[in-house]
Predict the structure of aldehyde dehydrogenase (NAD(+)).
Amino acid sequence: AKFKIKNVLKELGVKNTNEGTSTGKNNFSSSDVSIKSYSPVDGEYIGSVKITTKDDYEKVVETAQNAFKVWRTTPAPLRGEIVRQFGNKLRERKEALGKLVSYEMGKSYQEGLGEVQEMIDICDFAVGLSRQLHGLTMHSERPGHRMYEQYHPLGIVGIISAFNFPVAVWAWNTALAWVCGDVCIWKPSEKTPLTGVACQNIAAEVFADNNLPEGISNVIYGDQHVGGLLTKDVRVPLISATGSTRMGKIVAQDVAARLGKSLLELGGNNAIIVTPDADIKMTVIGAVFGAVGTCGQRCTSTRRLIIHESMYDQVREALVKAYNQLKIGNPLDETNHVGPLIDLAAVKMYENALVAVEKEGGKSVVVGGVLEGQGYEGGCYVKPAIVEAQPHYKMVQHETFAPILYLLRYSGDVSNAIEIQNAVAQGLSSAIMTNNLREAEQFLSVNGSDCGIANVNIGTSGAEIGGAFGGEKETGGGRESGSDAWKVYMRRQTNTINYTTNLPLAQGIKFEL
Ligand code: NAD
């Protein structure tokens, strides 16, 4: 009752109607078609944005191309200074933006704040990076020659993001792309468009304060058709797309057909291996948060527990006890552990998955179901479920974006558990709970986990911005955020300079006139 979305929108400068395509402080639209945003928290209408038309899109690209000419010649450390100011603005708006994320997407307020913190952290990272966009120097095989490499910005980076991290994923991309000298066109998820408006307002303020042109930060709105304008556009050299594997397979082909670059962050099917040497208390906390946090709608959510037979009953009992204590309800009430699913379609998918896995032979240990009654009027609240299953079940192989945790049993050596964990199409996050050095090292070795993220004594869910984030196989192979992920936002050029009066050819080739 204390929560007033109107005040939050006001603080973020988001009008609740007629928001639209933007290249900065400007907001324009030639369309009559709107996307209406409803909160999964209480089913209430929040506001709308206008869908970007082809004409609007052309304006955006033209503005972005012009802005690129200015931005690419702004020294990288100065670009870093702009990103520093952007990070500071995020600090000022952290609570308001965190609330909007929570209300529009349905994750807990704490997790909403966590997302904004991640945006701030990646800005700090990018500021440092702006003085470290290093290339190598090499020794030339020819006398009097010098050889080195340098990184130049690419141009326009297209960012397509998913509903479940409506703001952090944008920042992971933009903060790096901006210090690298690129300009960005973002298409937020059609399920969370208003967080897009709020973020664009913050960025636009910073660029305008510094007398920089419109078009360094751009937002377009719509579904896959608007996304398709970006992915098929040769003027957009890099597409960074986050979402389902289904989407990634289409985007990858669209981008490859024009030989563009793509950075894909797609679905996961993440497992925790629980060995006989696991700390049970840590295992339960890691598994429960991993499975029910964000209502099971994280790409790194824990979907499978692969438990040694000697520990199986003990772990199952501890999980059932923990699940019985879970409080489900309004995510803005900080005493609740689990909020709603994103929409009614997600609820249907969750219900269908539970029916399907039972048909395959799965046995519910904690029974799921859709909640009704006071506080659940929006229809998006469900009970987190635990199902005993077999690794090969179709549903176990599939990413259901909901709080369903599958318990799988292994016997013998840890290599058997690793085999089960790797035997899915996805390869994002993985974890082992063990105090046994041999097991931990085997899990991290070449014979171990095949995922982009492999943790020891930490769950699968959540990651720090300092590391490169992403996964293998159907997760798409992209890496973003920390480490050297910045390199994908730049083009590498190798330069050889001859400071003699001769022209010796490489490989000793003789060519005389
Ligand atoms: P989604 O695939 O339905 O949509 C994601 C985005 O892609 C949206 O903006 C959508 O409009 C756009 N899109 C869809 N089809 C497109 C097309 N053909 N061309 C261009 N754009 C298109 O995903 P979602 O339901 O929003 O998000 C959930 C999925 O995202 C899960 O599978 C989850 O694992 C994944 N995800 C992955 C990561 C990661 O980093 N690996 C992070 C967050 C979410």
About this structure: The two ends are 87 Å apart (CA to CA). The chain has 15 helices and 23 strands.
